[in-house]
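cron nightly-structures :: item 1 of 1
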Amino acid sequence: MLETAGRKWAVEEVAGARTISNGLTISGFNEQYSDKVNTYGCGCRVRQPRTQALAEKATRIADLMRILQDHGEGHEHPQYRWMNGGLVAPCVHAGGMVANSQSTASWVSELTPNGCAHWVTATSTPCTSLFKPVRVAPPLDIQPAGETDDGSLWWRHERLQRMVAHDPERLRPLFIEDRDQVQSEWLENPPEPADAFAQADDLLTQWTERVAAHPVADTRPAWAKRYWDKRNTRANIHLFAEMETTTRT
């Protein structure tokens, strides 16, 4: 483990599970160089014990994926604090008044003497995403995400996750069992990356249409709703209203 603070650094040999979650964790170095304001704002003192406890129990790749999709002990869905939104859980959701972040492009790797396996979402919010197999070579051509580019995987998934965020308790169950089943099948028998991304595209379209057919009120706190209203306006994303118009047309 290598940790830095400005020009200062420390290393520690690690055996078993170890997480950092945006904070200093090496004893001595942590106490001397952690910035109290930044440490509190990034939520690492809450998030790191959670990821560490889950990592110590992990025995399979699926367990590691679930850690990245976790919203904190006792919480199935995101919880928002006025200061930093959902920054205190492994699956981070933006929506705070001071500090904000969002889990993006989650990645899980299995490194063994017999070979390596890599799984990526290539999207935000792993709690609504599908981990897809990738390889170091040959490369997989994925259209990069421009600004609100409808053709990119990133923005098409953004429409899904931003709708689900209105009320995940009601909307996430519309597709999450399908997601988990596909994920389980892929872990048992990984498809070729190109085939996986193609199937994931089809599923994303189905799930987005399914969620769009169930418009709901935004259940998030007012400050989180304002945060996302601004970003949706900036990106010209209308979510349910846009989907309803398309469906009627």
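cron nightly-structures :: done
The chain has two domains: 1-103, 140-249.
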